[in-house]
Specification:
alpha/beta; Dihydrodipicolinate Reductase, domain 2; 2 domains; seven-stranded mixed sheet; 11 helices; 32% helix; 21% strand
C-alpha cells in the first residue's frame, strides 16, 4: 500500500532534508504545493486533510495552526517543531527511549519529533535516572555546540552570505544566556529530572554537526558509581539499537579529540563516556548530525515505524551533508 505524505514547510532546512531522504521511495506518494498554494489556507487545509501522514517543518505557532486545520481523523502527524514536545496526547518520537517506545510510535496519531539538543541530552540522562545512578533531583549541567544550520535559514544566511545585512564573522558564540532555551522543558520532562538542567548552548562556524556534554561528579552521586558503571548503564539501555550506540571504553580512552562533524549525513548518535577514575569524574558526550538524528533523519525513522517499515529504510546510507 502506498502512503500519501504532505510535508508542510517543505522549503525549510529540515523539510528539504526530509524530502531528499524520501525521494524515490515507491512506498510513498507526495502532495506538493507550489509557492502560491502554500499561502492559500483553503489549499493547505485540503492538503493537510488529504494526506495519510503530515510532517510539519514549521515555526511553533504555524505548526499549531496546521494541527488545528486537520479535521480528518485518519490523518497522522509528525511535528518537527518544538510546539508539542511536552504536550498531552503526543507520543515522543525517540524509538530508543525505552523498550516500548517504538510500539507507541507505531500506533500513534500524533508524534512529536525531538529537538536536536534535547534528543542527545535525553539519550544521556534518561537511562541514568531510570537506573538510579543519577537522582532525579541532582543538579545537572549540559554544555553543547551545534553547527549553524540548527538556526534555520536566517542564521545560515548570516554565516554563508557576506553581503547579508546580518552577516557575521563569528567563529564561535555562546547563546541562550537567559538560561531559558526552548529545549529545557523537553529535556527536563523526558529525562525525569525534578529541576531544570543548566543548559549552555553554543554555535560554531560549521554547517552541520553537534556535540552535547553532560559532566558528572561521580563522587557526589549516591553509591559513587564508576566511569565503567555509567558506560555499562548506557550500553545496556541501547543494546541492539541501530541508530544510538555507545563507544567502548578502549576506543574512547584512546581518543585525543572529538569532532562535531564526524556523523554528518547520517541518522547516527554515538555516546562516549570519558572519565578520570582517580578524580571520580566523567563526562558523557553525544555526537550526532543536528539535521540527521537531530531533525530530518529522526522524522524519517519515525515515519518508517508508523508505516510498518524497517526503521532503516532510506537511512542506511549517508546523505551528503551541506
Amino acid at each position: 500500500m502506498v502512503a500519501t505524505i504532505f510535508i508542510d514547510g517543505e522549503a525549510g532546512t529540515t523539510g528539504l532534508q526530509i524530502r531528499d531522504r524520501l525521494e524515490g521511495r515507491d512506498q510513498l506518494s507526495f502532495i506538493r504545493l507550489d509557492d502560491s498554494e502554500r499561502k492559500d489556507p483553503t489549499r493547505r487545509r485540503q492538503a493537510l486533510n488529504d494526506a495519510d501522514v503530515v510532517i510539519l517543518c514549521l515555526p511553533d505557532d504555524a505548526a499549531r495552526d496546521s494541527v488545528a486545520m486537520i479535521d480528518n481523523p485518519a490523518v497522522r502527524v509528525i511535528d518537527a517543531s518544538s510546539a508539542h514536545r511536552v504536550a498531552d496526547g503526543w507520543v515522543y518520537g525517540m524509538p530508543e527511549y525505552d523498550a516500548g517506545q517504538a510500539e507507541r510510535i507505531a500506533s500513534a496519531k500524533r508524534v512529536t519529533n525531538p529537538g536536536c539538543y534535547a534528543i542527545t541530552s535525553v539519550a544521556i540522562l534518561h537511562p541514568l535516572t531510570s537506573a538510579g545512578l543519577l537522582p532525579a533531583d541532582h543538579p545537572v549541567t549540559i554544555n553543547a555546540i551545534s553547527g549553524y544550520s540548527g538556526g534555520g535559514k536566517k542564521l545560515i544566511a548570516a554565516f554563508e552570505e557576506p553581503e547579508n545585512s546580518e552577516a557575521t564573522d563569528d567563529n564561535f558564540r555562546v547563546y541562550g544566556l537567559t538560561l531559558s532555551h526552548k529545549h529545557v522543558p523537553e529535556i527536563m520532562a523526558r529525562s525525569g529530572l525534578a529541576h531544570a538542567p543548566l543548559f549552555v548552548p553554543s554555535v560554531g562556524r560549521f554547517a552541520q554537526g553537534m556535540i552535547v556534554q553532560v559532566p558528572l561528579q561521580l563522587w557526589s552521586l549516591p553509591g559513587q558509581p564508576s566511569v565503567g558503571d555509567v558506560r555499562a548503564c548506557l550500553t545496556s539501555h541501547y543494546a541492539g539499537q541501530r541508530f544510538v550506540t555507545v563507544a567502548d571504553g578502549t576506543a574512547t580512552a584512546s581518543m585525543k579529540k572529538l569532532e562535531p562533524e564526524t556523523l554528518n549525513g547520517t541518522n547516527e548518535m554515538r555516546l562516549h563516556v570519558f572519565g578520570n577514575e582517580e578524580r571520580d569524574q566523567a563526562v558523557v558526550m553525544g555526537l550526532l548530525d543536528n539535521l540527521g538524528k537531530g531533525a530530518s533523519g529522526q522524522a524519517v525513522q519515525n515515519l518508517n515505524i508508523m508505516l510498518g517499515l524497517s526503521e532503516e529504510t532510506g537511512l542506511d546510507q549517508s546523505l551528503d551533508a551541506a
